[in-house]
Design brief:
This protein has 264 residues and is an alpha+beta fold. The chain has one domain. Helices cover 37% and strands 11% of the residues. It contains ten helices and ten strands. The protein starts with 6 loop residues before the first strand and ends with a strand. InterPro entries: AminoTfrase-like_pln_mobile, MAIN-like. This is Aminotransferase-like plant mobile domain-containing protein. It comes from Hevea brasiliensis.
Length: 264
């Protein structure tokens, strides 16, 4: 790569969304409460490109002037709050997906919304907006699964940056069971795969959970990291939340409290 700035693709609309208090217990149960708290910040394409140039696929490390460094599974867990221990995240690539969606989400998408085993994220956004005031627990559960599926779409984006792989949806049938999967491990594997693909094929764009790479760079190289006015305010959030301008904290009693963390 000749110092080319990569196009960094990211699907982050869900990280701007308000979270209904009624789905917060489901986020806790599933292990996705941390990533839901993470919030959104823009990617620094130049910073990410500089690190990709130093990636060595043979050792899965970044070759820096001071030596080698890498992103570990523990780093992913601390940055995102995702579970890093447990079963491997695997799923089906073939199924009657409209039926699966109807069963687990309470609604079947139109045929044009499904391509192969991927679903348009825009359909999830339109179909599962604000939860009506008076609905039963099953409807809230459907909305919670849709919200988590959108989160997954932001972590594991496809090449169009507009779809989510439906292989993940059956893993959300039992949300307590979903928390026993190593979502952080899958996240790290996907990031490694994207780094390998770009370096080996000399591609000019990259996707995946690039926010992890950016936060890791900020944390390890303080000279390039933004200043944080009050990091102690985010005591129960994943590490990555300290770089977001507004952070919403959900304690166990489901009261919503706003904290502000200003980036200079």
């Amino acid at each position: 790569m000749d110092h080319e700035v990569l196009t960094c693709r990211r699907q982050g609309d869900i990280l701007h969304a308000d979270i209904d208090d009624r789905i917060v217990p489901h986020l806790h149960d599933s292990g996705f409460i941390g990533i839901a708290r993470l919030g959104f910040f823009p990617l620094d394409w130049h910073l990410i490109s500089a690190f990709v140039e130093r990636w060595r696929p043979e050792t899965h490390t970044f070759m820096m002037p001071i030596g080698e460094c890498t992103i570990s599974l523990q780093d992913v867990g601390i940055i995102t709050g995702l579970p890093i221990h447990g079963s491997t995240v695997t799923g089906m690539s073939r199924a009657k997906w409209p039926k699966v969606c109807e069963l687990l989400l309470g609604a079947g998408p139109p045929p044009e919304m499904i391509q192969g085993h991927t679903l348009k994220l825009s359909w999830l956004t339109d179909e599962f907006g604000a939860i009506p005031h008076e609905v039963d627990d099953l409807t809230v559960l459907w909305h919670a699964r849709a919200f988590i599926l959108r989160l997954i779409g932001s972590i594991f984006p496809d090449k169009t940056n507009s779809r989510v792989n439906l292989m993940f949806l059956p893993l959300l049938e039992n949300l307590r069971q979903a928390a026993t999967y190593s979502w952080g491990g899958a996240c790290l594997a996907f990031l490694y795969r994207e780094l390998y693909r770009v370096v080996v094929t000399e591609a000019n764009e990259i996707s995946g959970p690039l926010f992890i790479l950016q936060i890791q760079a900020w944390e390890r190289f303080k000279i390039i990291s933004p200043s944080i006015r009050d990091p102690s305010a985010l005591h129960d959030a994943p590490l990555g939340a300290r770089y977001v301008t507004k952070f919403i904290f959900f304690p166990l009693n489901n009261q919503k409290i706003d904290f502000y963390c200003i980036i200079f």
